[in-house]
Amino acid sequence: MTEVTRPPAACLIGWPAAHSRSPLIHHYWLRMLGIEGGYNIEAVPPEGFAEFVLHLSTHGFVGANVTIPHKERALALTRPDERARAVGAANTLWYENGELRSTNTDIEGFVHNLDACAPGWDSVEEALVLGAGGASRAVVFGLIERGVRRVHVANRTIDRARALADQFGAQVHPVSWDEIADLLPRAKLLVNTTSLGMHGQGALELDIGRLPPQAVVADLVYVPLQTPLLAAARAHGLQTADGLGMLLHQAVRGFELWFGRRPQVTPELRALVEADLTNV
Ligand code: ATR
Question: pTM value?
């Protein structure tokens, strides 16, 4: 009998099986690069997660993305890199010399999207980040890594912003939600990492007109694609970076780790995923 070698495949592990754009993104790149490979969605309940991850290759996978509710468990079950440890959650798993490793690609997704949308953004001295959850930790890590000297983190629950300052050091300045208006004139980069502005969530009430004229505005929310924050920023002629761009850029590293080629975020890929978003 001849042994059948299957093409390499990765998967997205979540629970319940959520509608995800990741298969669309990775199938596009596999097609564009002419690589025979696969990317599946695997619905794995919390009680089955450890078994699934610890035997990922036996289940037929060279690596995986991990989403809600498994991202923290994934960190504990693998050998995380500095990025996954800093964010406190892993979203990408791969094998390195037989060992299961993990990283968090939200950091590079965020900075590479800014590089693409607002080249030179990293010359800013001060940034204002709204929110202090997991997404905020990825953003703050990226900003500090790229040399932003002062990162103001405003959060409704100020203790969570203080925890970020404890973790990342003196460059992070925790501020209360009421201080946002006073900080806007100094913020050359404003980033929303909260769920405000997302479909079905509350609005983010900000006077964009108070930002400096050369400010860059980034929003991690991508449903809707154009959030009220991004619409207001564009109306004021400011440069913007949206959440879909970050989603596409964060997928690059996983593909490279699993399939051995670094893919491009092209306008065609963006259009494909945009069409899928508007179809929901
Ligand atoms: P994620 O991992 O996506 O960052 P999270 O850890 O749940 O998710 O964080 C959500 C962020 O949105 C938090 O900063 C949260 O503020 P709190 O820490 O005070 O909860 C913020 N957020 C959610 N709803 C909000 C609201 N109505 N007003 C202000 N901030 C809100």
Answer: 0.96
